């Protein structure tokens, strides 16, 4: 059972290890970061190592660790907390989120978001406390909650307090010495006996997901180009399916980054067969169908992989003939369907944009499940039927009626406008 807290409410923590998850709108218009501060009774950090954030994700005592890409499919950031090893002179652990100011354009604020929350999850995955922020204005930083000691017992309090300053201002307020220049250099302090190196936390921005993905795409492009003579020779000679798979094996391991034991060939289950199953950390994530080099690909060719994936609970599949790579999303509601996510052709040249798509099915991409999921959601959102459905909503029809009246002076009702729009869409 989950205790849903209001601002200022608290709950006792009767677990030794907890996961503190924080979340916000998936389509947030700006970069958001989560951070934590281990504070003494004076509400100050004992040292800079008590500041846990993107450039310093583990507290010195390892009682607190930040996971920037949690794999539970819900939270945007998560902190793993081991309360048994929190130093005795730490009185509370403050959890905050902050906005990035370094992107130009409109000044961001948490008032732009529809959802912000913090929740506590036990080791078996059950949420036992949650606080949803009810309202926010122009703040750039929010303290969402705090874990604190009370007569030797750990408790959690929902805070929801905002600050106009960003991450640097919040860190400084808690006594952290920050290097906002971003050079990340060590600062030396001299001592009577020896020289001690003190690392000052740097707030230099970490790479965004898109930047990291494009770096992987560039690496993938270089690796695939080095394999192109082999791919072209196999295609020109129209080598058989067995020899084609030998080339695909090399591509998956040398370019896409999988280890040998993560590329499983000729997998069978309940009469269904997959030429390939790709796994990451022992979890099967994608099935694959291989056709002879240069063979024209057809929708029916993905059937075997699709049926295997649907039966096995795998939602992604690829189909390839070496030069063309097609990726599908598998759904199994009323019936099993495979919907094309993207198609990439490696000839005549391999573009960086195409490699960014292929990077989504590399080991790097599949290990970060949200990357491929987000891309599919964007593709699906702009699918013809979804766009038509959006056009025919009452809000859009009403807006069209208003614009028509403004431009022509003619007054129609929504039903008349909708009838014309439906006729126009039917003719497309």
Automatic annotation (TrEMBL):
Pfam families: TerD (PF02342). One of its GO terms (biological process) is response to tellurium ion. Residues 1-174 form the TerD domain. Keywords: Tellurium resistance. Belongs to the CAPAB/TerDEXZ family. This is Stress protein.
């Amino acid at each position: 059972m989950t205790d849903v807290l209001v601002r200022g409410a608290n709950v006792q923590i009767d677990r030794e290890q907890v996961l503190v998850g924080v979340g916000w709108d998936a389509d947030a218009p700006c970069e958001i970061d989560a951070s934590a501060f281990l504070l003494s009774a004076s509400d100050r950090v004992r040292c800079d190592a008590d500041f846990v954030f993107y450039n310093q994700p583990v507290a010195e005592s390892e009682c607190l660790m930040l996971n920037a890409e949690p794999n539970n499919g819900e939270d945007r950031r998560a902190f793993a907390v081991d309360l048994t090893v929190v130093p005795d002179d730490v009185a509370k652990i403050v959890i905050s989120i902050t906005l990035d100011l370094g992107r130009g354009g409109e000044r961001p604020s948490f008032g732009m978001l529809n959802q912000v929350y913090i929740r506590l999850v036990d080791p078996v995955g059950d949420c036992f406390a949650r606080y949803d922020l009810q309202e926010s204005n122009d703040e750039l930083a929010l303290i969402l909650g705090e874990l604190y000691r009370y007569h030797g017992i750990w408790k959690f309090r929902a805070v929801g307090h905002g600050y106009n300053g960003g991450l640097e201002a919040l860190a400084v307020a808690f006594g952290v010495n920050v290097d906002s220049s971003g050079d990340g250099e060590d600062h030396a302090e001299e001592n009577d006996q020896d020289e001690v190196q003190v690392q000052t936390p740097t707030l230099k921005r970490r790479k965004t997901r898109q930047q990291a993905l494009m770096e992987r795409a560039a690496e993938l492009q270089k690796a695939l180009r080095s394999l192109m003579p082999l791919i072209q020779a196999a295609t020109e000679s129209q080598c058989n399916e067995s020899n084609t798979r030998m080339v695909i094996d090399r591509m998956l391991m040398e370019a896409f980054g999988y280890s040998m034991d993560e590329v499983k060939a000729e997998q069978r289950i309940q009469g269904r067969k997959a030429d390939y199953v790709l796994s990451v950390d022992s979890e099967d994530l994608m099935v694959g169908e291989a056709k002879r080099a240069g063979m024209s690909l057809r929708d029916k060719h993905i059937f075997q992989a699709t049926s295997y994936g649907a039966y096995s609970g795998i939602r992604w599949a690829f189909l390839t003939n070496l030069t063309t790579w097609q990726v599908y999303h598998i759904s199994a509601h009323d019936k099993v369907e495979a919907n094309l996510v993207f198609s990439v052709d490696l000839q005549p040249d391999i573009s960086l944009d195409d490699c960014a798509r292929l990077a989504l099915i590399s080991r790097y991409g599949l290990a970060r499940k949200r990357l491929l999921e987000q891309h599919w959601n964007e593709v699906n959102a702009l699918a013809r039927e979804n766009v038509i459905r959006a056009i025919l909503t009452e809000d859009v029809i009403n807006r069209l009626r208003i614009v028509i009246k403004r431009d022509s002076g003619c007054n129609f009702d929504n039903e008349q406008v909708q009838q014309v729009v439906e006729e126009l869409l039917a003719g497309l």
